[in-house]
Amino acid sequence: MKKEILLTPGPSQVPPQVAAAGAVPIIHHRTKEFMEVFGRLIEGMKKVYGTQGDAFILGSSGTGAMETCVVNALSPGDRVVIGITGKFGERFSLMCKAWGVEVVELVREWGHIVTPEELTETLSKEKDIKAVFITHSETSTGIMHPIDKLGPIVDEYGALFIVDSVSALGGLEMRMDDWKVDMVASGSQKALMLPPGLSFVGVRGEKAWKAIEASKIPKFYFDLKKYKKSIMKSGDTPFTIPVSLCLSLDESLKMILGEGLESVYARHKKMSAATQAGIKALGLKLFSDHLSYVESVFTVPEGIDGGKLVKVMTDKYGARVSGGQEPYKGKIVRIAHMGYVTHHDVLLAMTSLEMALSEMGFKVELGAGTKAAEEVFLS
Ligand SMILES: *Cc1c(COP(=O)(O)O)cnc(C)c1O
After folding, report:
1. DSSP string of 115-145, one letter each residue
2. Which residues line ligand 1 (CB under 6 A)?
3. Boundary of a domain, candidates 235, 259, 283
């Protein structure tokens, strides 16, 4: 018999009650019944985004929300600064270039972040920067950016601040209004505890809407003005929304807001502290000093085949974790703890890691990682 638990940085585990909420006979989306749910979802998402502005729910994966930000805020020929600290920053850059936007790339070595000082330096040097793009939690390397510190800097230079929080929202704190974040893209299958298929865009206020009104990039499906009009007019969406996923979102928001955002964020911090303590206790090295609270990443030790380590943890011990993407394929292992995670998941990750390393010939003291994690939970 095989039993497997998802510990990948998306998709993440879906709570049974969230899955069950969507597994009902479909209801029509242009009904009073659905509109009531949808109104609640918008209000709930605004709380998670920390904004009095707008929250939009779209039918797409997280990349669709990223593209929504790009095509709505910009015009061809605009100049933007993009922090590239891994695969997802790179995606923003490729996307902007595809739409004829001029990109100033702020590239950092994998495992590093764009610091507030570095951003200030770039913005003071570059002229006519329309927007700054940053990845909240860079899933390919496990790092997180101090959005609270970067937002006010971008605002001071008059640029739009656009954040990819696909893997962070619902796990890491986001306060769009307080931190002056103009647009935030998110997805359903990470810390929001849903299957893939919904994406979200938060829009803070006037600065973003002015840019949206002026944008000249062609768009149709992802045109936020259509979504805004539809919400204002009838409280729904211009196109058919994935209704079942919305019913599931209603349940996951109930769980998140019921637990309380502060408590949800504290839980993620705890999961991360326990996982990292366990990793270190096994004599492994964390990949970065800037690891986020939704994912722990370690460097595969010398002499161990990283691809095989992931395979043994997953196939033999039932903890589905992720390896590295190019250029770190086989060199790092990523253990996610986002969304529906408790000590169960961290301890499973630890025992699987200990057993896999041990049978692959890496000297570990069985139970050392688990013990270190338990001590964090008990503290
Ligand atoms: C998962 C992820 C995305 C994109 O997600 P898709 O849903 O696969 O389109 C974008 N950015 C980050 C940081 C992610 O973790």
Report:
1. -HHHHHHHHHHSSSEEEEEEESEETTTTEE-
2. 10, 61-63, 88, 135, 139, 164, 166-167, 187, 196
3. 259
